Q: What sequence folds into this?
């Protein structure tokens, strides 16, 4: 039990990773690319088009060194209509959870400035509070959606953008990321992580008190039985 308490239960929160995808498992030949790819493992392309590029692609586009040097996505495909990726699955959360979408995104490495938007699409009315973001402007809640937006210059290095909310009631979400860029050169996306932080798990000190408490009850019961046996 001491070993259990000492490993991994260091805080009073419980974090679950719904999704962690750096696109390196997508099928694309080394040095090549998939124009207007629409067959992703975890995502649907719900507007426009995107391109999938392997390391060593003919455009010289380079993924995020931090999280991946393999495949990377150009969010503006090859139809002059920037794309939106949305998770195929929706993910359930509970009241009190903090749900966070993290994105490793860089500028298009070729020309100009692109917009980037990302966020959550809720099943039913969102019961949320405390929406925050890093890298994006203040998140905007619209019917059924929470969205962060920003702009990236083509020279901007990869960085992690996040958008989070705290749930006031249980629900489920899908997540999306995209651009309205329309010149076939969009922000480069190299990792999407969606995680859920639940705040209602007792911390180790509480567990220890609970366990000591059960031990104490056991002792009282034993002493009670011993007295009965002597009587
Ligand atoms: Ca990658
Ligand atoms: Ca493109
Ligand atoms: Ca562009």
A:
């Amino acid at each position: 039990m001491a070993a259990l308490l000492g490993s991994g239960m260091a805080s009073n929160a419980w974090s679950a990773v719904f999704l962690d995808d750096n696109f390196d498992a997508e099928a694309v030949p080394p040095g090549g690319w998939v124009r207007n790819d629409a067959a992703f493992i975890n995502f649907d392309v719900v507007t426009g088009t995107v391109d999938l590029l392997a390391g060593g692609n003919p455009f010289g586009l380079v993924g995020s060194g931090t999280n991946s040097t393999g495949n990377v996505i150009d969010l503006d495909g090859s139809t002059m209509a920037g794309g939106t990726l949305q998770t195929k699955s929706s993910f359930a959360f509970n009241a009190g959870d903090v749900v966070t979408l993290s994105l490793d995104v860089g500028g298009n490495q070729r020309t100009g400035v692109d917009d980037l938007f990302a966020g959550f699409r809720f099943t039913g009315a969102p019961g949320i509070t405390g929406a925050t973001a890093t890298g994006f402007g203040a998140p905007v809640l619209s019917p059924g959606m929470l969205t962060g937006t920003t702009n990236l210059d083509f020279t901007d290095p990869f960085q992690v953008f996040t958008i989070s909310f705290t749930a006031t009631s249980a629900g489920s979400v899908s997540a999306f990321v995209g651009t309205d860029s329309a010149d076939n050169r969009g922000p480069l996306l190299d990792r999407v992580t969606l995680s859920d932080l639940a705040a209602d798990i007792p911390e180790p000190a509480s567990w220890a008190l609970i366990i000591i408490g059960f031990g104490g009850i056991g002792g009282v019961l034993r002493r009670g039985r011993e007295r009965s046996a002597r009587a």
User: Anything to note?
Assistant: The radius of gyration is 24 Å.
